[in-house]
Amino acid sequence: MKLSENHADLLKETLNLGVGAAADALSEIAGGEEIILTVPQLQLMSTAQLARQVCDVSGEEICSVTETFRGPFSGKAMMLYSQRESLELVRLMLGDMIPVEQIREMEGEALCEVGNIVLNACLASLADMIGSELQTDIPELKVGQIEQVLSLEDEEHSILYLRMDFTMARHNLQGHIGFVFDLDSVTALIACLENYLKSIFEI
Amino acid sequence: MSNLPELLTIAAQQSSHGLIVLDESLSVVFWNDWMAKSSGIAAEHCLGKSLNDIFADPIAPRLLHALEDAVTRGQSAVLSPAFTPSPLPLAHPSHHVLRMKQKVAITAFRSEEVHYCLLDVTDVSLAANREIKLREQTELLNRTLNKLSHILDGVSEAVLSTSVDGYVVQTANKVAESMFGMPVQSLVGAALGELVADLPEHQAAKTVVLETETRYGCGENQKSGFLSITVNSQDKFDVLTWVIKDISALKNTEQTLIEARKMAEDASNQKSRFLANMSHEIRTPLNGILGMSDLLWATTLDGEQQEYTEMIRKSGETLLAIINDILDFSKIESDKIDFQIVDFSLTDWLEDVIGLVRPQAHFKGLEIGYHLDFPRGARVKGDPLRIRQVLFNLLSNGIKFTNRGGVFVRLSIDIGLDERAWMYVEVEDTGIGIDKSRQDELFQPFVQIDGSSTRRFGGTGLGLAISKRLIELMGGEVGLNSALDEGSRFFFKIPVESLQFTQIARPPIATEGLHVLVLSGHPFAARHLENMLAGWDLKATLLSSLDALDAAEKGALPDRFQLVFLDCDERNIEVLAKLRERPSFQDTRFVLLRQVALAQTASQEGTGDPNVVFVHKPLKSSVLTPLLTGIQTPAGSKPKRAKSPSGSRYVEVHVLVVEDNTVNQKVISRILTKAGFHVSIAENGEVALSMLADQGFDLVLMDCQMPIMDGYEATEKIREMFRESSIRVPIIALTASAMAGDRERCLRAGMDDYLTKPVKQEALFKMINEWIDPMLRNADGGTSEP
């Protein structure tokens, strides 16, 4: 099963809507500071490819926020940042409210919440598009080498990968979002996309 | 087994977290014990209500959004306290004015197709407390850092810290910015070695300071200057601290000061040289004046002429004394004074000094006495001439400022705690005294207590200043006790080396049972006699007058006196006559004391009575001895006079005077010719050499500074010429130059002795006697007395 150009465009559009909503939510908790999230790149790839891709941009040391989702298709949603950038992200979000030394202490929880907001927004946008519901669990934070963080049993999983650019107060950070689908879930996703396209064209 | 839902309900009630379950309409369906306890609201008041209804205070919007998403979309969420510190308005567990910090996890779930959500509330206040504390500490630290950087920016030196290796700059202050012409951001990361051309090497755990003239700065802003660079390295920190300051201006000032000091020193040296030269120049003509007035005095003169001649001589001598003072002072000022340390007898030394000032005192009708507080015959090592100069000064001063009474000297040797011997001298007078407030100025040069007294009392005002400097140079101290109209007591002490401190053997005189009476109207004189007699273990009866003797009770005095000292001035003879009429004074020996100034008027000197002896005051210890032995030697009481050479005695003696100044030639040759010497004149060293080659001389008087060939060179040549000969002509230097070191120079050149111009007749004869006497004795077979 392949992701067609149309599918990809649709997904990109949908997820951009999602991260747009996420950016609004983040701006709100960051005390009104304007945050812009964009998804410039989207593709389907294998776990190994994902690892390489992330590694190329962010290096070996990774922070990830992962949450499980269930619905017409299920799997895990992940937001990944290099450790340095995740700290930078939290620091930018918290602004001058808290001294840098203390940010380290609450970095984990803060990052968890940021990831949760972004991922929930993306999933909500997807769910809205397919007219169904995607339930999520509470997020989980992992820190370490890329292989440990991904901790995927089967390397042959298909992964929907998005590169996400985070822009705030003239700072620009690059993160990654990955949706790891359970067996057949990619097929289900594409079927959903196909249905949606059809419904649009039929009207 | 109980049913599971009931068990789970109990477990959930007792959880250590807050647990709330909301239904689709966000109404509370479960509210556990922890929630009831933390909010103070029991479950029954909450069930069926929304959170907004339960709490009076508003719920965080972020929580409400998340709850909405949970029940409508099934999305779970976490709320971190970083962004939402207190999602629910719960009170802090210990500080009720504060809100409890909570972490809330929202889990969406479905049961029987209905959406629910579970709120899991965790109290993170304690963790937050720690954060608050950390925050406070961080703030304190920041404030401190700000303060420190403010201080560092305020100092006038560039302060930098660098790594230990490579001296890479880590921090820099404002001054460093302007010094190196770079902003702090550019300074940080730069190697200090590239900013300053010359750096000191740091040393572990030490501070190294370098002052160097070097280039510093960067590129166009490069400057050069004198830098003071301090680098400090500490064990604890892996960092070096540098303090750098441009001290070019300071160095310039320092250089200016050094030059100014050098100029001042040069000026001072020039002043000293000028004074020395001036005194030299003045002494030469003064020599002429004094010499000629001596000669004039010896010619036939009428009374008026004699008076004028005497005035010329006195004026000349006063001028000489003043010049000597100034010369001495300039020598002391330029540290050109040398001390000649020899051993000398304290008693002889003191009596010599007393002898010098005695005429002066007696002329004014003043008493002069002394007290020796040490064994007779004690000898010490020191510079007797310089100490004498000091004592002479103090005595002259005392006499000068005393019109009634007298002057008394006390001399003792103290052994200090450090076992050094100190010569302690005290000069007491009954003069006008000195007010306390003026005593400090007294030892300053050119100061006399009353400006007008310079005219009244004469002198340069240098005497005390010279004395003080001399004493200080000898390592001693000088001081003064005085009050206006109550006389003065000057004292000084000088460290000396004590040589012999035991009683010398006395002549075997039995003094036991010897009764001595002193009749004296002068307290100083009486004290002096008492001290003298005490040296012989004699306790004298001291009475002020004949009346006091008569008033004394019978039995209180001895029946007979073997020895009586009479010190009743002009009444001496009268008292003597009265006493001799009394039976108890029949075999008594009388010693009549008198002042030098009265000597000429005393006509009774030659009484012929062996039991009556006249002596001069103050009584010398050497005079006392023969008095006690009973050998009456009136000669002993006469002041010693320099031998006046008789013409016949020296007719054979041929003296060569080498002198370029014609006045001096005349003066010296007249003096010598009158005394019967045969005199030849050479106007310089070269002439002298040729004369010596032609004929023999018995003595050479050699001027030192002469044109063509000076005295030093001439002497060396003469000694060279007669090296093989058995004859060694005595050569006596005769020079107006009186600076220290001249004597050594003369002796080094081969001269035998040294006389300072202006030449005094007596000193010249004494010197010639000294060098010719042994020669004559050799020639005459040992008979020197005619």
From TrEMBL, chain A:
<dbReference type="InterPro" id="IPR028976">
    <property type="entry name" value="CheC-like_sf"/>
</dbReference>
<protein>
    <recommendedName>
        <fullName>Chemotaxis protein CheC</fullName>
    </recommendedName>
</protein>
<dbReference type="InterPro" id="IPR050992">
    <property type="entry name" value="CheZ_family_phosphatases"/>
</dbReference>
<keyword id="KW-0145">Chemotaxis</keyword>
<dbReference type="GO" id="GO:0016787">
    <property type="term" value="F:hydrolase activity"/>
</dbReference>
<keyword id="KW-0378">Hydrolase</keyword>
<dbReference type="GO" id="GO:0006935">
    <property type="term" value="P:chemotaxis"/>
</dbReference>
Automatic annotation (TrEMBL), chain B:
<dbReference type="GO" id="GO:0000155">
    <property type="term" value="F:phosphorelay sensor kinase activity"/>
</dbReference>
<keyword id="KW-0547">Nucleotide-binding</keyword>
<dbReference type="InterPro" id="IPR003594">
    <property type="entry name" value="HATPase_dom"/>
</dbReference>
<feature type="domain" description="PAS">
    <location>
        <begin position="4"/>
        <end position="74"/>
    </location>
</feature>
<feature type="modified residue" description="4-aspartylphosphate">
    <location>
        <position position="703"/>
    </location>
</feature>
<dbReference type="GO" id="GO:0005524">
    <property type="term" value="F:ATP binding"/>
</dbReference>
<dbReference type="Pfam" id="PF00072">
    <property type="entry name" value="Response_reg"/>
</dbReference>
<keyword id="KW-1133">Transmembrane helix</keyword>
<dbReference type="InterPro" id="IPR036097">
    <property type="entry name" value="HisK_dim/P_sf"/>
</dbReference>
<keyword id="KW-0418">Kinase</keyword>
<protein>
    <recommendedName>
        <fullName>histidine kinase</fullName>
        <ecNumber>2.7.13.3</ecNumber>
    </recommendedName>
</protein>
<dbReference type="InterPro" id="IPR005467">
    <property type="entry name" value="His_kinase_dom"/>
</dbReference>
<dbReference type="Pfam" id="PF00512">
    <property type="entry name" value="HisKA"/>
</dbReference>
<dbReference type="InterPro" id="IPR013656">
    <property type="entry name" value="PAS_4"/>
</dbReference>
<feature type="domain" description="Histidine kinase">
    <location>
        <begin position="277"/>
        <end position="498"/>
    </location>
</feature>
<keyword id="KW-0808">Transferase</keyword>
<keyword id="KW-0067">ATP-binding</keyword>
<dbReference type="InterPro" id="IPR004358">
    <property type="entry name" value="Sig_transdc_His_kin-like_C"/>
</dbReference>
<feature type="domain" description="PAS">
    <location>
        <begin position="144"/>
        <end position="199"/>
    </location>
</feature>
<dbReference type="InterPro" id="IPR001789">
    <property type="entry name" value="Sig_transdc_resp-reg_receiver"/>
</dbReference>
<dbReference type="InterPro" id="IPR000014">
    <property type="entry name" value="PAS"/>
</dbReference>
<dbReference type="Pfam" id="PF13426">
    <property type="entry name" value="PAS_9"/>
</dbReference>
